[in-house]
Specification:
By secondary structure, this protein is mainly α.
Length: 280
């Protein structure tokens, strides 16, 4: 019986690994094709997009960087993403702390509101938001635009942070209160180190979504000096849509930092998701 169960577990493990390997190939194959074709000329890509380049055409990257104005675009993307992440982390952590222990009346109603807000499309608010921002001369203002993105990602972030705060033992806060700690001290010195995996998870999720965001940034960030890296790439399609080599190079310039960032932070992201999935 033991031998049979061991063989069965080995077969199951092999099947799981084969399935995971197959999914990994499906996910990585398009990225690999973009990288390979970014070093080829347009003629080589049209002739055979699956072939390896005979000569590495690094001029594709130089042309893509200059044409897409990625120097300005990356700086704007970093500003937009950074402001959005900071706003979301501060507000969602405070809201998650308050809603985790039912510290205020109507916390259930507030949670229901956040749940309903996740189902409302942002397109419904574009016109009134644009009108209000135009009246306040905030069109093209990156920090002001990050406030809209933060509001868009806030419901999910609040739910995640509330889950992490629920996992914190009540005895920690009670002992800190008995020692005379105030609310700010409890949140910063007691709660923050414990829920740090949640903060990292929220920062990664919001950061990736903000970096790739198109609708809000294209509406409220007008003018090439305010373009993010995503908008700079999409602006290239009109002039260089026929030159696939430059477009592939621009695409990899855009997704390369995201891949590198996720590879460096995936351990923290997985740990944070696992530690926050215990209680809800």
């Amino acid at each position: 019986m033991e031998t049979r169960s061991k063989k069965k577990s080995i077969v199951i493990n092999i099947m799981i690994h084969v399935a995971l390997l197959f999914l990994a190939v499906i996910c990585l194959a398009p990225i690999a094709l973009v990288l390979i074709n970014s070093f080829k000329t347009n003629t080589e890509i049209v002739a055979n997009p699956l072939s390896l380049p005979t000569i590495l055409h690094l001029e594709n990257y130089i042309g893509a960087w200059e044409t897409g104005n990625f120097t300005v675009g990356f700086l704007n993307s970093i500003k937009l993403t950074g402001c959005t992440v900071i706003i979301v982390l501060i507000t969602s952590s405070l809201a998650g702390y308050v809603l985790s222990g039912k510290r205020i009346k109507g916390s259930g109603t507030i949670l229901m509101y956040f749940m309903m807000a996740m189902t409302v499309p942002i397109q419904l608010f574009l016109f009134p938001l644009y009108y209000a921002y135009a009246k306040m001369n905030l069109i093209g203002n990156i920090p002001a635009t990050s406030v809209i993105l933060a509001a868009l990602y806030m419901p999910l972030a609040v739910f995640l942070m509330r889950t992490y705060f629920l996992n914190v033992p009540k005895e920690l806060e009670e002992s800190a209160r008995m020692d005379g700690a105030g609310t700010a001290q409890v949140i910063w010195h007691i709660m923050r180190p414990v829920v740090s995996p949640g903060l990292i998870t929220v920062a990664i999720l919001v950061g990736l979504q903000s970096w790739n965001e198109y609708l809000i940034s294209s509406t409220f960030l007008q003018g090439q000096k305010k373009f993010t890296a995503t908008l700079g790439f999409l602006a290239m399609q009109g002039s260089f849509g026929s030159d696939m080599g430059i477009m592939m190079a621009a695409a990899f310039i855009l997704i390369g930092p995201i891949i590198l960032f996720f590879v460096c932070t995936q351990r923290y992201f997985v740990d944070g998701m696992v530690s926050g999935a215990i209680k809800g």
